[in-house]
UniProtKB/TrEMBL annotation:
<protein>
    <recommendedName>
        <fullName>Sulfotransferase family protein</fullName>
    </recommendedName>
</protein>
<dbReference type="InterPro" id="IPR027417">
    <property type="entry name" value="P-loop_NTPase"/>
</dbReference>
Amino acid sequence: MEKPRLILHIGSQKTGTTSIQGFLKNKAEALAVEGVNYVSAGRTNIAHNSVLQAINQNGGKKVAKAMVAEIKAAPDVTHVISSEMFFRRGLAPWFDTHFPRRIKRQTKVIAYIRRQDKYAEAMYKQRVKNGRYQGDPEDFAREQIDLYYGRVLRQFSQVFGQENIIVRPFERRNFPNGDVQQDFAHILGLSRELAEGYDLPSSNATLSREVSEQLGDMRRAGTDINTRDIIRKIIAIKPQGAIRSGDCLSLALRREIMAHHAKYNESIRATYCPDMEQLFDEKDLEDDAAYELPTSLETAIRTEQAKHAIDLAIDQLSA
């Protein structure tokens, strides 16, 4: 595609954004050599998440002015702005109001989207491990069932043009070497060597339901131990049973969620991904033996594994 002036990466959540943003920040010098600038205005650490806070505190105009100034100061490079917090209704109109038409016409918007049942499960674990939810995962998924990505995409299409919206289903089959970071680098037009030569250990590996729930209990109990450090250590040492996906929602509920979104997902495919036969791969849902929930005995074993994993992580952090 023609090299854009601005790449606006809007997430969404649970689609490898931490890996992408870490790459953009930590490879800034190498990116500059290849004509890419990761915008510093409005960015705290690796992402532009603070922009949303500025908007909510009536500072949106000021931060937008700083971002636009940085982009205008280097007209011959591609600038990147990235935040999973942008994937919500109301943010596209903010860009429309505060960014000049010339920049908007030269912008590509990148959105990675996750299959709705998998997204609901990932968000359940996120809320649980942060101590913000204590209920049943299937109840949580039903509360989150209306995940119509098209509403947000439509708003960005109205601002930047449908032809400038790049939608990527978050599935390894769609990415070079199964790596979302390399896929993003490819969209940016970066050299293959730069994309493949960077490896950031993920801080967002999928913890088991039991580990997530026990970490949530610790957060609510007000422990002095930083649970984020525990998570990083668990991901590094990978104790038995601590890393597990697909362990919260039944096959029946997954089928229900995807049937609920079938019409809307097809609309997204036809609009933004017409070369794809299907937006998401759902072959796993055709297997009647898939996603069997654990028995009481298996749950007890997994609970002990989770306790052991957390204790082991704490011991190593204390050593």
